[in-house]
Design brief:
The protein is an alpha/beta fold. It has one domain: Glutaredoxin. Helices cover about 35% and strands about 15% of the residues. A 5-stranded mixed β-sheet has the order 6-5-4-8-9.
Length: about 180
């Protein structure tokens, strides 16, 4: 996979994640990346995660800021989550109230076999509902490439979901998050 294709995929998916929140949440389009200067996405996640939300440390030690090369984003890890089954778990009332503001569903997946099977089995539904996905566990660019091959058209962005996992009280993936709650 070329660097340009990865960056284009990341940019397109960032726009898709921003549009997942209801139009009333965003008063205007805000540029969060232009050229070589980047900003944290943390302030833009606050409407979904609540007023008390504070981001965790964003960059691992030893990684300088600025534009990332293909390998600079790997490995992607979300220590609070693991592949598994959701069961009947649903969000707490406070979280459920925030989820009602979503205009688009989104999912959290890994590059593991369970996630790939889930993605293949739910791909048509995800495309039909206009879902966007976040790859929350991947070791290499090859893992990303494999997931993108399975996604075939579903917007995907690779990033840790540590803050989302904490504030949505999620510990397993794959999971679909909609205005009605969680679904596997």
């Amino acid at each position: 996979m070329t660097r340009t294709r990865i960056h284009m995929t990341l940019a397109a998916t960032a726009v898709a994640f921003a549009s997942a929140l209801s139009p009333g949440t965003w008063a205007q389009t805000t540029v969060i990346h232009e050229g070589t200067r980047t900003e944290s996405i943390a302030p833009y996640m606050a409407p979904l995660l609540g007023d008390g939300w504070r981001p965790q440390d964003e960059a691992p030690a030893g990684r300088p800021g600025g534009p990332a090369g293909d390998m600079d984003i790997f490995p992607i890890r979300t220590p609070q989550m693991r592949p598994g089954h959701l069961g009947a778990s649903q969000p707490a009332a406070e979280v459920a109230a925030r989820l009602r503001g979503l205009s688009r569903p989104f999912c959290l997946i890994g590059s593991d076999e369970l996630s790939l099977r889930w993605l293949a089995g739910n791909r048509s539904d995800l495309l039909e509902m206009g879902a966007i996905c976040m790859l929350v566990e991947a070791e290499t660019v090859n893992d990303l490439s494999t997931v993108l091959q399975h996604a075939r058209g579903i917007p995907m962005t690779p990033a840790s979901a540590s803050d989302l996992a904490e504030h949505l009280s999620l510990s397993v993936y794959p999971v679909l998050i909609t205005r009605d709650g969680f679904r596997q």
